[in-house]
Design a protein that fits this description.
The protein has 374 residues and is of the alpha/beta class. 67% of the residues lie in helices and 9% in strands. It is built from 14 helices and 5 strands. The protein has a 5-stranded mixed sheet, sandwiched between helices. It starts with a helix and ends with a helix.
Length: 374
């Protein structure tokens, strides 16, 4: 019995020594969970606040400013400035620069001071049902609050709300969750598959010793890299096509924009994912480590990209991290085309960021891979 116990402790000690020497696995086991718990603990917030709000006010007055301040003081809205017209508001909403617009009528001041019924319009980007429901509930509560104050002392019989805040949801007026979640799921799935397949493909060649055979062949190194990256690229486009068909026929999610543009703007995102897959393959010692690293990258992408939780609801420091995640920009692209029906002009900044990321990541990854192969 004593001998068996000693053997068991020796086995445990040997595994502990191996784990200590394997710094990659040790880091993933200890450091990454602490970092992720800290980030996600601050980031995850189902109570959506700080929605950016712009105002259209043809005749600004202290009364209209009072209403705007009432919206901001709730904490659910963040004042983002004054604009001139609906076209400007639509462009800002199309480009995801604001989440809502408050529109005052030209005669607001005179009617408001005379305690006459007056309508103020709140236009909300309803692409995200969670955020838009919070905005709508807050707006209606404010309208009722101010109406009761204005009617204080008058008869309640035949009560007509003096301040009527009318809410309109653009892009997803029915607030269907499928219209928001399904395009996001497509982005998440193609990122996971592209990163994972690319990383495993390169690590498998090195693990089985076939990489040396490729290096000894007449193929140049760039030809090896292109040859390894092309199959995942083609496979991902096939998956996108199948996913779009399922989205339409199963979930009823129609593509409001140009599908050719969607295929075209997907390429910069795939370029980033391929580069990340190559980079993981240069660090991982085996396929198991490659899978672990891929999933550790995958989790922050889900939590911090706006896939589930609105970025507007996150603290400012966490939002800066969100903007470093490639999926954040691709979700703007895929939801913009599928749900909003926007074009290349509205998505130019997201596309430019992804192109820059893609060129940098894939260049650095291929350079690192070349050194590793050398």
């Amino acid at each position: 019995m004593v001998i068996r116990t000693r053997r068991l402790f020796r086995m445990i000690w040997k595994e502990m020594v191996h784990l200590k020497r394997d710094r990659v696995s040790l880091t993933m086991m200890i450091a990454l969970p602490v970092v992720q718990l800290t980030l996600f603990g601050y980031a995850i917030n189902t109570e959506v606040k700080n929605l950016s709000l712009v105002v259209i006010d043809p005749n600004p007055s202290s009364d209209s400013r009072y209403i705007v301040e009432s919206f901001v003081n709730t904490g659910y809205f963040r004042f983002a400035g004054y604009i001139n017209c609906y076209d400007e508001l639509r462009l800002l909403l199309d480009e995801n620069k604001v989440r809502a617009g408050l529109v005052f009528p030209p005669d607001f001041k005179s009617r408001f001071r005379a305690n006459k019924s007056v309508s103020v319009q709140l236009i909300v980007d309803a692409t995200d049902p969670l955020a838009s429901r919070s905005a709508i509930a807050t707006a209606r509560a404010l309208g009722l609050h101010h109406s009761l104050r204005m009617k204080m002392g008058e008869s309640i019989a035949g009560f007509e709300m003096p301040l009527d805040i009318r809410v309109r949801g653009w892009y997803n007026p029915d607030m269907r969750s499928a219209d928001f979640m399904v395009p996001g799921l497509i982005g998440v799935i193609i990122q996971l598959i592209t990163v994972l397949v690319t990383a495993l493909s390169v690590v498998r060649e090195r693990e089985f010793g076939t990489m040396e055979q490729l290096l000894a062949s007449p193929l140049r190194r760039w030809e090896i890299v292109v040859g390894k990256l092309t199959p995942p690229l083609i496979t991902t486009y096939i998956i996108i096509t199948i996913s779009l068909l399922l989205a339409y026929f199963v979930f009823g999610v129609a593509i409001e924009g140009n599908i050719i543009l969607l295929y075209f703007l997907t390429f910069p995102f795939l370029l980033v994912a391929l580069g990340i897959g190559i980079f993981i393959s240069t660090i991982a010692k085996n396929q198991l480590q490659a899978m672990q690293m891929s999933f550790f990258f995958f989790l922050p992408s889900i939590m911090l990209s706006g896939f589930i939780f609105p970025i507007d609801a996150m603290p400012n420091v966490i939002r800066q991290i969100c903007y470093a995640i490639p999926l954040t920009y691709f979700l703007n692209i895929i939801r913009g085309i599928i749900v909003k029906g926007v074009g290349l002009y509205e998505l130019r900044l997201d596309t430019l960021v992804l192109l820059t990321m893609g060129v940098l990541v894939i260049t650095l990854s291929i350079m690192r891979m070349g050194k590793r192969l050398g």
